[in-house]
Amino acid sequence: SLPSGSTTIRQVKLEKECELRVEVTPDAPLRLRLLKGTAEIFGTELPPEIWLTIPPRQKFAVFTWHGATIEMDGPTETDYTADETPMISYVNVHAVLDARRNRAKASPSDSDTSQGPRVIVVGPTDSGKSTLSRMLLSWAAKQGWKPTFVDLDIGQGSITIPGCIAATPIELPIDPVEGIPLDMPLVYFHGHVTPSANVDLYKVLVKELAQVLERQFAGNIESRAAGMVINTMGWIEGVGYELLLHAIGTFNATVVLVLGQEKLWSMLKDVLKTKTNVDVVKLQKSGGVVSRNAKARQKARAHRIREYFYGPANDLSPHSVIANFSDLCIYRIGGGPQAPRSALPVGAEPAADPTRLIPVNVNQDLLHLVLAVSFAKEPEEIVSSNVAGFIWITDINFESKKVTYLSPSAGNLPGKYLIMGSLTWYEP
Ligand code: ATP
Questions:
Q1: Which of 56, 88, 355, 388 has the fewest CB atoms lying closer than 10 Å?
Q2: In this predicted complex, what is the ipTM?
């Protein structure tokens, strides 16, 4: 790596099936281009000779199947070449999925066989789940499929801000700079960065999302044949494991890809052995995956929220909106004021309906909270509705009874009802 501020241009020659692993510095982007040969970033081919500007903090690899020369301009945190990667095994998985998509496409009238592969990627934190999901989607899109990407990782999602589960069709290989296109994602708001804050709500939302996709698939032969790739959380013990089984069942996954953990693979293989239509496949973790500690994860979350309001390249200008307390209809889902233990019969546990809707008056705790704007038309629909977007509470004035919030656009919000959880953001 080079000292900060250096702009020395250098070339890296990659042999076939090797990759250049790079961590971009936190303070400056890196320019990079393909000079010779062919290469890809997480499944998306690089255009020849065109400079790409990779944003700060990004960790990525440029992989070549046949050999390539890469040119870099700018400092990096680290960059090195690796000749051992699991890419061959990953692309073999892609080939199997591709064959299944072709088979599905060839029998459009049969509701069973017309379903393409439903792939779920599981494994511990930092095993490369998001990256493998991305590669499988980009390789499929390159061949003209439009697979659906489902992201169940509410801690570090790649479709929208944290605290959500979401799905979106992938129509083109994912751009290494722009990421997942955000035209019309289907988003459900959990409101917390871990499901343990309300496990039942998480399950309810997973079910809702699965049902909506099922309906879309029923009417769309093309996306049905392309199937889906589902990314999951790195929480694989205890309740986390239950949630994986729940997701596998709810989405009727047919291929379970287990990254980097023998034990999880053998457990899943065992519980799923009666399901003859489900393949449980063990895959090696890439040595290039960069581990992130709690602090790095927290930072990445804050960064995602910032990106939502200000754009990936600081190219959006959110609006500051002032509203009366009485204009806001805010709800919280689950938990809430329970009967005190002293008011219950001896031995009884206070019951909190995890999906109960609780109206919230404006109070100090809302400051710096990120709220979701629900598509619900009635309060009863809030739990089962997807969300249009998010606002961020920046000021509360109890004298004038006014709330100031940041919104991606000026004008009326796309829905009347707001959902709060525990998702906060502090502008750095
Ligand atoms: P989590 O469970 O936290 O969601 P994950 O298992 O999904 O993590 P990824 O997000 O895929 O892991 O990878 C972690 C980080 O490592 C990402 O920043 C990713 O870009 C980077 N990374 C993955 N593979 C490589 C590679 N071969 N070379 C360089 N960086 C990589």
A1: 88
A2: 0.98
